[in-house]
Amino acid sequence: MPDWLQLMIDSFPSLLYAGLVFTIPLTLLSFVLGLSLGFVTALTRLYAPLPLVALARFYVWLFRGTPLLVQLFLIFYGLPKVGIVFDPFPAALIGFTLNVGAYSSEIVRAVIESVSRGQWEAAYSIGMSWSQAMRRIILPQATRIAVPPLSNTFIALVKDTSLAAVLTVPELFQAAQRIASTTYEPLVMYTEAALLYLLFSTVLSWGQTRLEQHYGRHATHLGGQS
Amino acid sequence: MSIEIQQINKRFGDFVAVDNVSLSIEDGQLTALLGPSGSGKTSLLRIIAGLEAADSGRILLHGEDSTDRHVSERGVGFVFQHYALFRHMTVFDNVAYGLTVKPRAVRPDKATIRKKVMSLLELVQLDWTAARYPSQLSGGQRQRIALARALAVEPKVLLLDEPFGALDAKVRAELRRWLRRLHDEIYVTSVFVTHDQEEAMEVSDRVVVMNRGRVEQDGSPEQVYDHPANPFVYQFLGSVNRFPARIHQGVAEVAGMVLPLAQPGDHSEQGQLYVRPHELDLFAEATPNSLRAQLELVTVVGPTVRLELRQQGSDEVIHAELPKYRFRELGLVQGEQAWLRPHGARVFSEQLG
After folding, report:
1. What's the confidence (pLDDT) of residue A114?
2. Calpha distance B88→A226 (Å, rounded)
């Protein structure tokens, strides 16, 4: 067996451990929290009074317009200067959540608006309240449209979590870095890390296809009137 | 009175959609709001439903002031031109939904809902589609499901916005006959909007003709067709020929032809004679007290023959219509002369026309 393969096999448990214990939880948690934040932000932008709308727009503008790495540095290294100190993992979680929230709010807003006004009117006309119509008529239809763009955000997030390495979170990439620096085999180690990220995002894309099938089961064709 | 419309006004910017309209619609009646596009008929219907707010005026449903009530609390059923079925739900769920979202206290139990939905689906003759999704149905089927969905919540009034507008001619004709029979069966007070005068005539008990946000005429289909209140209604309900006429002492004179006038009034000197194509008698030979014209075009449409004629020196085409057998009997020939005389007509004075 060649040396490089031996190294890959030997280091695999540490990398997989870092992935399963840090990368994946960080991804899932910040996605769920970020999507919730995005949902609230979207509803605020669509239905809230003007000052709140302005606040939501400001948040989206700020977090889409600045680099994620800079945001993470500000939270972890900057905020302690004013007495706000986070551990590495929470700091990363806050950074990713705020970032995902900003991007996904635009997706949520767009898909809610894409459901035709007639669906609202039809729901009202059979006696549904706003929240019933939103929950039972609008969101289920919006979800189907939202799956592909939200999957994009999700897969990007899987890879972006590697930035948490700079906040000393011992996730997948940091584990690879650590082993590379002791074995002097960066080519092998970073290739292995890349393969693991590829594996994670492939599994997640497969999940997206399943979700699309689930939410699209009523559609034998796209578009048209119903 | 089921629906009481009191002095409703609605503007969109500078455009006056509904101009001070008042109407009363009786229990169990099927009323058509008929008019060209932009006449305000759809706006008025949406205001009755509460989908649009009027600028002023009031809407009473069964004597109850509903002006400030939300759509979902008005107890109206609404059928949309483009169906607006819930595309992520089966046909069964679409119809059942209005019942399942009712507050717990008044919600029927599952078995009752199921029974009710199935009987509604039978009523619209689509019980076999219960498990399908809307995208698997044809346009006509979707609209019948939309109707079943609207009826499920037992609305006090049923409102239909150009319900057959998106369907092809054959399905449309079938469905409107079906709607008429259905209405006779369930007898719910209904208002439907259409721009198709034939549809209004065939389906409704009462026709309200609208134009530029106002009611031009209101009456039974027969009244409106046979006794149009003004030139607009005359022209909107089918094709019409107009002849300039001089009116004096109870007769109208058109290019030497003298016709007695049935209706009193309209004593102006100049007027317009309105004659429908089927109200023209035709002759192949010179006939006293008639108009001479050249027969320019003959078109046979099934059992009916449509003729285009033109008086000498005139640009106006005169349309006439008669049964094919009658056309044969007369021996009229395309390109030859013909003589015509109205056997029914109305005169409107110049100011109105």
Report:
1. 94
2. 10
